[in-house]
Specification:
Elements (H helix, E strand, L loop, with lengths): L1 E7 L2 E8 L1 H5 L9 E4 L15 E3 L4 E3 L8 E3 L4 E3 L11 E3 L1 H6 L5 E3 L2
Antiparallel strand pairs: 1-2, 1-3, 4-5, 6-7, 8-9
């Protein structure tokens, strides 16, 4: 079985699992609206999800950008924060307003 993402203007609107005989029929694999995605991430960088964008140039599914300050990592096609989250085994949440007010801050400790 294989997973396919249905695209509308390069935005994923549906993800299905298809049997091999369905794939061989050309109903999915040969359609311009369907692009195969890898659950294990073996190709197209990320498993497609609803709302993801398919970037044909990168041949990758890219998740929606959560925060304006986060940049796309080309190697993973994942959004990365402008400053690294503290690595102290505590839980943090990103606060875009805090970052916009002071670009040296942005991670808020969950208490």
């Amino acid at each position: 079985m294989a997973h396919f993402a249905k695209l509308n203007n390069n935005i994923v609107t549906e993800v299905i699992v298809a049997e091999q005989d369905f794939i061989n029929s050309g109903a999915v694999g040969d359609s311009f609206l369907w692009v195969q995605t890898s659950y294990s991430g073996n190709f197209r960088k990320n498993f497609a999800g609803i709302g993801y964008t398919y970037d044909k140039t990168r041949d990758a599914f890219i998740p929606p950008q959560l925060y304006p300050s986060w940049k796309l990592a080309e190697d993973t096609c994942q959004w990365k924060p402008p400053i690294t989250c503290p690595d102290d085994d505590k839980m943090y949440t990103w606060d875009e307003d805090v970052y916009q007010a002071d670009n040296s801050k942005g991670w808020i400790l969950n208490e």
